[in-house]
Amino acid sequence: MEVRHTTNPTDVKQYDTERLRQEFLIESLFEQDQIKMTYTHYDRMVVGGAVPVTKALELEAAATLKTEYFLERREIGFLNIGGPASISVDGETYELSKLEVLYVGKGKRQVLLSSLDAANPAKLYFCSALAHKEIATRKMTVEEANPSNLGSQETSNERILYKYIHADGIQSCQLMLGVTSLKTGSVWNTMPSHVHDRRMEAYLYFDMNDDARVFHMMGEPSQTRHLVVANEQAIISPPWSIHSGVGTSNYTFCWSMAGENYTFTDMDAVPASQLK
Fold first, then answer.
1. CA dihedral angle for residue 105, residue 254, residue 37, residue 130, rounded to 10 degrees
2. CA–CA dist 248, 222 (Å, integer)
3. Which of 13, 75, 138, 222 could form a disulfide with 131 if both were Cys (CB 3.0 to 4.6 A apart)?
4. Residue 131 gets which letter from DSSP?
5. In whole angstroms, what is the distance from residue 59 CA to residue 111 CA?
6. Is 196 assigned to a binding site?
7. Is 201 part of any known ligand binding site?
8. Starting from the edge strand earliest in sequence, which strands make up the sheet with 111-115, in order?
9. Facing residues of 270 across strands?
10. pTM of the full predicted structure?
């Protein structure tokens, strides 16, 4: 498990490209028959990826967590972005197709991740946050995720928003998770931008061609920076930072949040005229 510490927005103004990528970009999440995890001190979220191919992979507590098992004091949300998956939670099995989500609450001891077809392995992206009570395990399909059409062709941001883990969907302690998919011909997301100082956010960009890139905008509104992101790479977004993106083509991303409050609409908009 890699550990990332929090950063001071005043110090970030002095970072060069290499340092920005070192602090905020997770470049490698999906490797065959491995579970890879990054622990960020921003709201103590764990961001990870798993690709079970020849064997089942068990979610185990790394020494960093100092707990007996991974979900002793945590909750977790899994999003499948690959082939059909199977997740066993204390002996109960859930099958996930692409873009289906499974929430597993605090207190579950054994979580096993498997692929149903080794020739088309699952790719399980997950985010985990601290939890204060036990909540029932629940699966949600993409059809159940309340798809909402947003944006327009005129502003190059026509997209579909899917909300899975949130106050009106899968219940959790503090974790929120969803997916946004841009339609062909649209490349901008979240513009005008916003910040939400009470919640950090993680982004996974996926369903991109190998040569495609997303320019992820970050930083304080008056001190913007950018990170060039490839397919299946993730971003750690601090609470004080904007998080917008523009791609060389359309793309899909998973957003997840953790923090003090549990209100999806609690955000402070930043008009484009105020960005620098």
1. -30
2. 25
3. 75
4. -
5. 6
6. yes
7. yes
8. 57-58, 111-115, 85-89, 92-96
9. 193
10. 0.95
Measured CA to CA, the distance from residue 108 to residue 93 in angstroms comes to: 13
Residue 82 carries which DSSP code?
S
| 3-state class (DSSP) for residue 192 | coil
158 is in an annotated binding site: no
Name the β-bridge partners of 93: 88
Contact 50, 111 (CB under 8 A): no
Q: Taking the CA of residue 28 as centre, how many other CA atoms within 13 Å lie in the half-sphere pointing to its CB?
A: 7
Measure the CA–CA gap between 275 and 220, rounded to whole angstroms: 9
CB atoms within 10 A of CB 2: 14
The pLDDT confidence band at residue 261, using thresholds 50, 70 and 90, is confident
At 265, the pLDDT band (50, 70, 90 cuts) reads confident
